[in-house]
Structure formats: structure tokens, C-alpha cells
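Before relying on records like the one below, remember that each one covers exactly one chain. Contacts with other chains, cofactors or solvent are not represented anywhere in the record.
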Amino acid sequence: MDIAVNKEPVYSPQKGTVLSAGFWLSAGNYVAIETKDRDPDTDKKLVIRFLHLKSKSVSTGESVSRGEEIAVSGNTGTATTGPHLEDQTVPNFKKAFNISDEKEKN
């Protein structure tokens, strides 16, 4: 889902662990939180990811609580058309990004 906002705080919608927080060329700054919920089809843990962030307030491996500030929305990455927050829920973080030609930077 894309929400037109800029430089607004982003809060964790659920308790979880930061699976990854870094930068990808197309997604820009991102935070991915692994939750305890599971996908009913694959039984994999669900991951909520936030893309195109101006900045990140959390690091990989950190535990987060529901309502904790994790980032600030922005306009980073090559696959953005303007300031917004993109959030997605996916059952498999690495497969869902599927960007083997890009290098991750933390």
C-alpha cells in the first residue's frame, strides 16, 4: 500500500524483530519486521516491510514493540515517484524482494 506522506514518523504495527534494515537501489531505505504471525498457505512467518524511507530508527536484529517509532517516511530509491510510505506484508522476505542484481547496504 502506498500512502502519500513525507517526513512523518513510521510506527511498528506489531511486535516483532527487525529482520533487515538497510538500503536497496530501487526500494531506498527500508525496514523489514518479522512478526510471530504465519502465512496460512506457506506457514512462513509474515514480514512487514516499509520502503522509500528518509531515515531508519532501528537496526537489524533489534526487537520492536507495537507503536514504536521505526523510521521516518521519505522519497528514497529509484522506484519512487514522489514522497510516500510503501508498506507490504509478505510471507518470505528474501524471495519477495527478488532483487539479485542489487547490492544491499546497511
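The domain at 2-93 is CATH 2.70.70.10 (Glucose Permease (Domain IIA)).
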